[in-house]
Input
Amino acid sequence: MATSISSSSSPIRSSSSSPNSYITVNPSISHLVKLNNNQSRPSSSLLCCSSKKNPGFMDQILDYIEGGPKLRKWYGAPDLLPKDGDQEQDQTDDSREEEEIRDAVLVTDGDTEIGQMVILALIIKRARIKALVKDKRAAIEAYGTYIESIAGDRGDSSFLKKALKGVRAIICPSNEGFLSNIESIEGVQHVVYLSQSAAYRDNSGIKALMTNKAKKLFEQDELLLEKSRVPYTIIRAGLLQSTPGGKQGFSFDEGSAAQGKLSKEDAAFICVQALDVVPQRGVAFEVVNGDENISDWKEYLSSLIQNLEQLQ
Output
């Protein structure tokens, strides 16, 4: 039975936050729960309704987040996360840098709309998450211990090096300059990069002037990935739309991104699905909403990436 999901946006907030302290998140992403569909959950966690009497999907996720250690364990969230400013811990981490365990996923733009969608999908997937944010306090109030929120100067190489500690994979949901600023991503096992370069390719006139800077940043980051020695997946999406995800099929035809569109929720979903399908070197593909329905994403992406690698 299909779940009815509201497309209106709703803030994620903590019970202790002030009325003006929140991060706005679009709640209509219940299809992302399928990422962890082998884990039994109360059916109420899939409900979302605009009625004040019935809490929305994101509010119910928040209820579980605030439910204490028992529910944190149920969702797979860590009990405690490292605190910034703990010098003794930092010194210990530095001394053990060579033997560190890389098991975290870093979301580079956790404040953006798509970044928040990616984070929520990763929470449901029970991943260890680190996220670069501009407002650390708001992120902590929103997500609690489900993620390690990191704020700092993205032009500072030492800050970026610290952010990468323990990171096995990176998801870049927008082009806010992370890849351009970082000196090295050696040790990272996979980078998933959401790009709009193909969507902006054929723009002309005023549209070209408005998107030219963003297009150049996307192309610059793509080039950096291609020159790196880290496996990467570049997802060249069609023009991103604030429409409900999980409602349409897809098309991965070459050249489709220049004319087609893609729901932001679907874009976030594909980023998370691509995370564990690691190419041998690096691939790039285009995707828009279309007519093709995909039942097994891991199998589909594995086949797509294998075919792309054979053409290289």
Summary: Residues 205-227 form the longest helix (23 residues). The first strand starts at residue 10 and ends at 12. Residues 277 and 301 are 7 Å apart (CA to CA). Residues 101-311 form a domain with the Rossmann fold fold (CATH 3.40.50.720).
